[in-house]
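Re: the request from the purification team.
They wanted to know what the chain is likely to look like in 3D before they choose a buffer screen. I agreed to run a prediction and write the result into the notebook, where they can find it.
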Amino acid sequence: MTYYDYIVIGAGSAGCVVANRLTENPDTTVLLLEAGNPDTKPEIQIPLDCTTLPGTEVDWGYFSQPEPYLKNRQIFCPRGKVLGGSSSINFLVYIRGNAHDYDHWQSLGNPGWSYQDVLPYFKKSEHQQRGSDAYHGVDGELSVTDVMSPAPISQRFVDAAVALGYDYNPDFNGIKQEGVGPIQLTVKEGKRHSAAAAFLVPILDRPNLTVQTGTLVTRLLFEGTRAVGVEYLRQGMLHQVRVNQEVIVSAGSFDSPKLLMLSGVGDTAKLQAMGIPVVAHLPGVGQNLQDHILVPVPYEATQDLHTARTSNGCAEVGLFLHSENNQEAAPDLELIFGPLMWAPPGYANSGLGFTGLIALVHPENIGSISLRPAEGSSASLSPDPKDTPVIRLNYLQSQSDVQKLVAGVKLMRQLFQTSAFDEFRGREVAPGADVTDDVALEAYVRETCGTVFHPIGTCKMGTDSMAVVDPELRVYGVEGLRVVDASIMPTLITGHTNAPTIMIGEKAADLIKAARSVSKQAHKAIAR
């Protein structure tokens, strides 16, 4: 039997960071397992090709269940299935969230997760093109840059927002978040800088790091309540490998809870109904699913917009603001602008255009992840690990969420009707100029809303009865097991999830190192 000190499951935004930091010590051995393949697909490297990656071989290609508040429409939920995880297929946006988000995490019973606690970890990872300051670092591995050669029309969006009274904000990750300004991307020398490119590729020659791709972990192995290894499927064969210290689950907000449940960690009644032996009763596993909701407002353009290959095309500038009745400290709406036509299905267009995206960053809906029952006559058949998880998003369950998105559509139209866009503005593709009253706009929002690809919360950190991990990301009720990815976020952040997930990986690595140091000191004390 092969042993490693640590096994990390999932080479995504957090897993790549954890593998890097743990193997800085040459005496620490790490096995990093990734279900996808190496990140050799050429389109991964080209920022503008990011919109072509969902639905390809580097995407799990998940769909939600029929959504009851969207006329049973299923939501497409892309997730990276490749080295780098979703950081290899996302839209490259680097927005950390609001300081109040992290202070709120701490107020929920998570000491050490306030903004002042996590800011050093954001800075540690970062190589900021603009230079270092109180909020940014330049010594990290992850390249964060302004958009190279932004389209001229993107500045018109900024001009329009300033004309309507919004403040100009050059840095959404700086002293404040509200206002309109440029969006930074994870790009290096014109190419995507994924977590794999930043944290994994430079260290592949470390002899204490083993990376296996094309490897689907089917279950965690336990002796009693201690995690002692994993079972995985590779090239049609089942294998087992053991761990000396800890197993770290970094499979993402859909697959981390799935793997815990397959391994007997979850709600006892639900696991027993599926014939899965129970290791630990944790009813919060797979619950608390949250995600940002997106609605597009595309327009045809009257001329070529000159979108560069080094741009993601759909998010060059943005606007963070408070909706009319938002009493919270952090904004609840993000308006995103890009020089690319992004029309909902069924809306005819010329293909040449620009799009405003309205993102609801603090929706009220709560969804869940569960195991897909095995096919067959017996409901007690154990689920197949190769089956996709059952995803329920519950988008727009709250009428308040609908009203905020409708208000966002109206504001986006107002911005596009300013004189700043006169030179470029063509026909409104969607909802369409004839869709004006609130009833029709609500119908449009329910018809077209989708995900911003930011699922979180399904293995949430906390101290309440539905928490899955403690503030050190250790899974309750078992030993030798942590979850380190976006699933541990107790609530959504006011931004995009790649940067905070990398931060979580950084902080977790320090927590893991500290725990091992304490363990070694204890053993030395016993030996004396």
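For the purification team: The longest helix spans residues 498-527.
Please add any questions underneath this entry.
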